[in-house]
Amino acid sequence: MRIQFVYVQSSIFFLIIVFLLMYETEYKQVMPFKVPIRAPLIQEYSKFRSSVSAATNQSIVRDATNQSIVSDATNQHIVSDATNQHIVSNAANLSLCEGKVKLESLLDQAFNQPVIFFIETSEKETISGRQACALESAVRNSHLHVVMVRVATHLDLTDVFTCNFLTRFVTMEGLSIYSVDLEELALGTQMEGFFTSPAALGSPHRIPHMSDAARILIISRFGGFYADTDFVIINSLAGRTNQVGSDYVIEEEFNAQHQLMEGNEISNAIFQFEAHNPLIECALDRFYAGYRPDLWAFNGPKLLQKCLAKVCGHETLSPAEMTKENICPGRCQGVQLTHYKDFFPFSWRNNKHLYDRRTLSEWEAFFINTSAVHFYHTSTRNTETDKRAFRPEHYGERMPSLVVLADKHCPFAFWNSEQF
Fold first, then answer.
1. pLDDT at residue 359, as a whole number
2. pTM of the full predicted structure?
3. Buried b / exposed e along 269-308 (16+ C-beta atoms within 10 A)
4. For the chain, what percent of residues have pLDDT higher than 70?
5. Phi-psi region of 292 (alpha: psi -120 to 50; beta: other; left: phi over 0)
């Protein structure tokens, strides 16, 4: 009898444990920031490696019907080897995260669908967590083909995060990564010779200025969106053409016509132009001819602002004229100024508030009319703002916006990078 009673007690205790575990599982599925993302993602990565190895005798190569990571003339995926179409000389290296992967040239590509470009103009051969977040969030949300353009010709697979990110995302149709020779990109344009000029090479702002030039050249040639790699894309960007935004608004002000003034000048951190749009061609014409190596923003946002005034038929544009009603396709050769909250809910002048701690619902309400959020990594590098993003459990209920957005829109990058 006693044994039977102990058995019943044990059974009841076991059922209670099962019930609590089931409750915890349901709770984590409903409540934000509690999902243990790392484990299933690593498992998915392992499954991917195993399935590829089994299907192709430990080769990473698949045929075109299986959305391969290798490329042929039609599918335009990220890499190829001209002799054997393998992603690396030893295809098994990718599964072992060894060696380097050679990137195809951007200049050999043609895009038949709307694109968003991200650019890395340093020689780095690895992908950082923040860059991966920009790419992943764009793949998930932009409804555009996502293209990263890198000056480096290879990616280093010995960097575990880079290798894991590649094997997770380059098999998706939404992401391609290419290399570009900047001097070759500029051949036959008004910027020919710029990238090897003493002025550019000697500039204290060499890397950002080369990025300023590269984005103009790429969008002039291909058309599409450009975005800095410290953006998080949180909503669709599909269907937009020739759009610019300003990152100057701190407090909303209205002109005499009761129109919202959208800032003093437009930003070059994100924009969309059709190929050869008059504004981007104006920037192409003036960039090298008027280049100032000593001024960080002169060749970027300030140049675009001058060209915006030109296509709108003005010498300059006052803050009162910088409204959506004034800067519109009918008056500015197809160009539309967006509401500042669309791309820049925080100005670069008060971007520290991106790191204020708010609840999930407060941040969601704040970003309700926002498509992309800029985190101003370069311009805030030397400030006292703590830009690190820790795991959600570090904060409790109130968190910085980056933690909220990264967990939702780039969970792989956020949970799998050692530093974010």
1. 95
2. 0.78
3. bbbbbeeebbbbbbbbbbbbeebebeebbbbbbbbbbbbb
4. 74
5. beta
